[in-house]
Amino acid sequence: LLEARQKVLKKNDLLARELRRRFEDAGVTVISLASSPGAGKTTLLARTLRHFIEAGTRVAALVGDLATDHDARRLRESGAKVQQITTGTVCHLDAEMIESAIRSWPLDTLDYLFIENVGNLVCPATFDLGESRRAVLFSTTEGEDKPAKYPPIFHTADVAVITKIDLAAAVGFDRAAALAAISSICPVMPVIEVSASSGEGFPTWCRWLHACRTLQLRL
Ligand code: MG
Ligand code: ZN
């Protein structure tokens, strides 16, 4: 069983590597978002797409869920090209799903591609999607100990995003404990605190996204 699992991961890694090369060749910056269900990935992404479209940035998104195209329909309101990936019983996206979703897309017409993973903090950690950068999100309403409970996804992420900070006081969120939990797992991990509904911290998130792209284009 272990051997079969390793084969699957190996196959995924090879395809992800190929995807990453294609993304780089096309000059598209690919950002993936992982979190548990309900942490606010879609809400943050909706605001991000809206902001980018208004600024004339060429942006698209893929969104994974077990069923329904609710999130894709919601994200399309921004005017961005959005495709839903329904995984059926599979609790994560893999490189093959990404590859088949973008097969007919002219990638070189994009500046950014966002990938919203299925709400799950466990196996998305082991599946490389060919993304340039990975963001892991958790919300103030989930408590401070998410990083301590799910270290692998934090290890593979490039940024931790604390969402719903407008609700922090109402739910008694212990900010210092959350920051300590993140830095005990990844001491150098940048942390962005954001409310996609009030917009607090949103400029910081956008600055991080711009920095990812600048760095990628310079390399
Ligand atoms: Mg969603
Ligand atoms: Zn899974």
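^ zinc ion complex. The longest strand covers residues 59-65. The two ends are 40 Å apart (CA to CA).
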